[in-house]
Amino acid sequence: MKGFAMIAPNQVGWIEKERPTCGPLDAIVRPLAVAPCTSDIHTVYEGALGDRFNMILGHEGVGEVVEVGSLVKDFKPGDRVLVPAITPDWGAVESQAGYSVHSGGMLAGWKFSNFKDGVFGEFFHVNEADANLALLPEGMDLASAVMLADMIPTGFHGVELADVQFGDKVCVIGIGPVGLMAVAGAALRGASDLYAVGSRKICADVAREYGATEIIDYHNGDIAEQVLALTGGKGVDKVVIAGGTSEETFAQAVKMVKAGGRIGNVNYLGSGDVIIPRVEWGCGMGHKTIAGGLMYGGRLRMEKLASLITSGRLDPSKMITHTFHGFEYIEEALMLMKNKPRDLIKPVVIL
Asked: What are phi and psi of 169, to 5 degrees?
């Protein structure tokens, strides 16, 4: 089969590989729509995961089942399915401890384009199909469905990590697609004042549609100082980090959050070091909690998040700015994520 791969660090291209084989609990899926992610850029061009060679990229997709293993009960060839970016091993001890995303080791629940070939191939393999796939709801737009693979669950997990409650003042740092979903998730969870940090107009406009009450532009000065000014020096209850630099962003988040507040990070730190300012962290005693985590995967989460779309509570199509038709456009879509033109939020490739 053909696939679009990381051939070596800083090098991508099309390669030929053997079609994956199907284990008794697994499924082979043909992609129907895929989307590149900034994580793919970190992997290829920043060496964030270490060297990878001839590894098919991509972890955002929906598809059609073409083969299932002998022990698969709930899916059959021809089913159209949602595929989460995170596909844990559900029998692992880490899963039993409540951290399925780390089944088999830290971040090992993230398999596509990390430990095995991703979804940018003519076929891809899904482990434990009954636990990791979900049926694509009837009539759901394929491009919107792709957002369920990573963007929606990652943004929402940032809100969960920050533990946003009714009436909280919340700041979301970074309003790319993950940050926009954090804005939407915080609004659904009952945030009152909701500050969104970003500079691109297209993202700011969509952030307001998802519930942001104020846009903070870092070109206008230090974002923590802006948030403190808007809150009368008190700061916000919760912060979600969905973008920014690791060197500066954590320091700004600690400065802007109240004592007793909470910071949830879902930003993929491809480089740099995290800096925590000592005094603003209460010399280590300010009860300012920082939680960082990889989004959860699995069937149940996919089904619940999909119901937000089918019920009309969430419209992820607002984020999709570029739609391509044809397998050959995967590289062009990936380069958009690398170059980040001003009119981009998220590209999708319909196959």
From this structure: -85, 125
CA angle 26, 38, 198 (to 5 degrees): 135
Tokens of 48: 């964030």
Whole-angstrom distance, CA of residue 289 vs CA of residue 304: 28
Tell me the DSSP string of 54-99.
SEE----EEEEEEEE-TT--S--TT-EEEE-S----TTSHHHHTT-
Question: What is the spatial distance between Cα 339 and Cα 28, in angstroms, rounded to a whole number?
Answer: 32
CB 193 within 8 A of CB 214: yes
Burial class of residue 227, CB neighbours in 10 A (0-12, 13-18, 19+) = buried
Closest C-alpha to 266, from 158, 150, 141? 158
Q: CA-to-CA distance for 333 and 328, rounded, in angstroms?
A: 10
Q: What residues have CB less than 8 Å from 235, skipping those under 6 apart?
A: 169, 227, 228, 255, 256, 257, 258, 261
139-144 LR contacts (CB < 8 Å, sep 24+): 140/306, 140/309, 140/310, 141/317, 142/32, 142/33, 142/62, 142/348, 142/350, 143/33, 143/317, 143/320, 143/323, 143/348, 143/350, 144/309, 144/315, 144/316, 144/317, 144/320
pLDDT of residue 332: 97
Residue 3, burial from CB neighbour count under 10 angstroms (0-12, 13-18, 19+): buried
Has residue 46 got a pLDDT over 90? no
Query: Percentage of residues in the chain with pLDDT exceeding 70?
Result: 100
pLDDT at 49 (0 to 100): 74
Backbone angles phi, psi at 306, to 5 degrees: -60, -35
Strand arrangement of the beta sheet that strand 55-56 belongs to:
11-16, 2-8, 55-56
Half-sphere exposure of 120 (CA within 13 A, CB side): 29
List the structure tokens of 83: 């595929």
Structure tokens at 244: 């920014």
First-last CA distance in the chain = 15
Residue with tokens 């979900």: 134
Indicate the pLDDT class of residue 244, thresholds 50, 70 and 90: confident
15, with CB counted inside 10 A (0-12, 13-18, 19+), is middle
Q: Are 111 and 49 in contact (CB under 8 A)?
A: no
